[in-house]
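JOB MANIFEST
job_type = single_chain_structure
chain_count = 1
residues = 408
[input]
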Amino acid sequence: MKTLFGPFTQILTMSNMAFKGSLSDEQLRIIKNGGIIVEGDRIVEVGNFSDLKHMCKSVHEIEFECIILPGLIDCHTHICFAGSRANEYSKKIQGINYQQILSEGGGIYQTMEQTELNSDEELKKLTLSRLKRHFFEGVLTCEVKSGYGMDLIQERRLLKVINQIEKECPTDIIPTCLAAHVPPKNKNNLSREYLKLIVKELFPALKKENLAKRVDVFIEKNAFNINEAEEFLNSARQNGFDITAHTNQFSSGGLSIAVKSGALSVDHLEVISDEEIKLLSNSDTTGVVLPGCSLGLGLPFAPARKILDSGCKLAIATDWNPGSAPMGDLLMQASILASNQKLNNAEIFSGLTYRSANALGLNDRGIIEPNRIADFIGFKLPDYREILYNQGKIKPSFICKRGEVYDK
């Protein structure tokens, strides 16, 4: 049965917007006094509410001022974990850096140890709690990485947990295998051998059990070097996986091999050269910036303004994790990035919706138009510009996921 939702004060459809480069607010297609017709989990029609009313017997009427956006998409998270690293945060704000903590056996390794101590049920409970908060803050599609397994058995376990979670929450989850997060602890010079083991033993299991279609690698000092990562990414592609990479967080160099390997996205980019920006702009790879990480570590933001002005694809994600980005508030982080990098409303909302979908290889969401998934969120505001103006403090008051309305 078709249902008409509305009337909405403004609908920002995000339709007919470019996937690459800078944008302007004048390019936003805004429907005033709008309505959205939904059948099943798909959008059927978008237009003036009064004009659409005769097409539906079922009407879900909105009785307050409401600005509508496509459901937000967080294309980079690490929310399947247990434990806290508040002790390390205290060290960071005293001046001890992330790399030093990792080299001393803390950081990611600490989370691995804490995660392994928790049962599957406890991990599910913790992750579902984070997803629920994210959902009611407007994130209706969420990428979730593994990466906190001490070995391949634990990595497989985490991916099984991530897949089970999707059956218990409304959020669409995109699982990503990040077994190549850091080399095994206390095993020097085995990083290349460990990557080969992932290819030989874990990749077949991912396919057989349908645990993940995406593979990630962390290219950085104390993680995996450029040559190792290039060999690994090419193996992942040859095995039929979509690939992405953590790169250019503390040092440059990894972006070029990820782009040349055909990565869907390169994520972080806090340290990026003009040559690397040019390479990215000439590719179909999306640059994903993670303002939550810069806030968590007290580091400069990725140069999003320069990346956009150079004609690149750009998406924005939280990097929600227990170490470098514990906040996990996508809209607040994006609003702060907008102020710092002088990104306008169109650029921010694009980076949180259809451009983020594109970074995940999805073409069925992130835009409010016929045949797309019926994912949209509403803010109790009179004007869309109020959303970033309030810097993420105002959260959605209306959530429609796959055609179903959810209340907190």
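[summary]
The two ends are 25 Å apart (CA to CA).
The mean pLDDT is 95.
exit_status = 0
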